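Duplicate of #3305? Posting structure anyway:
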């Protein structure tokens, strides 16, 4: 984000974020091809390959000019880095809370719509593991398309408006995602649901980069994302537990069938609404030029500006 032309950030944000979906797609295909013969541990051994590739890439990549500028300013400062970070938190505490809550909602959206879905297909609908894998693949294809398309679209509509459109469309696709009994219709639902979920996610890398305080463009998004991930870590467990406690009325082979679909639909519908509210009250800094330090502004003195539509 620090080296890209300003007008290219949106599309590359979508490409970057959908590396996640591409990896998930590859893992699903490897699961189908390898696990039946070699066991699940083989997936973990194979996952070391991209880890080594990452090490090699980071060895050859250069630091950005913006990072070098920020680093030099830190060295020239009379304060230690942790003191600068404390000052940043004092000035931008509201922005930090906002980013963490937004990332919690977005991670609930991602994990809540993905993690339990193969189990939903197998246990609630009785589809085979092969069909569940196909459902995961189709969903990830929708995610890849959505991330790149809406990332690019955010350059024209704005970051927050694009995320809001994805949330509204996602709410509309919830019935198609969970209600049909035919496999083909459920696949269509998985495709469009992930198109919307990861479409919103495709904007997140550039959005977090642009609202980050100058000099903290790595710490701010990383910490907000991981704290949000921590808050949302129980999403699939919540869905599984509630689905099992609220089974379908009819029995299958004399046993209760968990109603995962209803719980997923309710949770994702609520989270979409939360995301919609958060992006409406958030701040928009599309096109912000990195490396230009502003005079300190206290977020607690400017709360009205943070919650103003821009």
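Output from current build:
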């Amino acid at each position: 984000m620090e080296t890209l032309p300003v007008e290219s950030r949106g599309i590359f944000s979508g490409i970057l974020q959908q590396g996640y979906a591409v990896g998930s797609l590859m893992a699903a295909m490897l699961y189908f091809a390898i696990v039946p013969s070699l066991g699940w541990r083989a997936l973990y051994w194979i996952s070391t390959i991209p880890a080594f590739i990452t090490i090699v890439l980071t060895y050859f990549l250069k630091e950005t000019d913006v990072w070098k500028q920020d680093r030099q300013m830190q060295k020239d400062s009379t304060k230690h880095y942790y003191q600068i970070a404390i000052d940043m938190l004092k000035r931008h505490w509201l922005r930090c809370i906002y980013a963490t809550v937004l990332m919690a909602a977005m991670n609930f959206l991602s994990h809540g719509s993905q993690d339990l879905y193969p189990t939903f297909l197998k246990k609630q609908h009785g589809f085979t593991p092969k069909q569940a894998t196909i459902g995961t693949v189709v969903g990830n294809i929708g995610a890849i398309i959505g991330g790149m398309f809406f990332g690019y679209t955010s350059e024209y509509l704005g970051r927050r408006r694009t995320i809001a459109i994805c949330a509204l469309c996602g709410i509309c696709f919830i019935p198609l995602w969970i209600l049909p009994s035919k496999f083909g219709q459920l696949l269509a639902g998985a495709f469009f649901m992930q198109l919307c979920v990861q479409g919103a996610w495709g904007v997140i890398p550039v959005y977090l980069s642009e609202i980050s305080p100058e000099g903290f463009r790595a710490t701010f998004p990383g910490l907000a994302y991981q704290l949000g991930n921590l808050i949302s870590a129980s999403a699939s467990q919540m869905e599984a537990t509630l689905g099992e406690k609220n089974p379908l009325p009819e029995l299958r082979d004399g046993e209760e069938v968990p109603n995962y679909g209803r719980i997923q639909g309710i949770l994702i519908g609520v989270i979409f609404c939360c995301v919609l509210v958060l992006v409406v009250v958030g701040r928009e800094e599309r096109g912000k030029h990195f490396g230009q330090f502003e005079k300190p502004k206290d977020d607690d003195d400017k709360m009205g500006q943070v919650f103003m539509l821009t």
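Confirmed duplicate; merging threads. Residues 293-310 have pLDDT under 50 and may be disordered. The CA atoms of residues 16 and 117 lie 24 Å apart.
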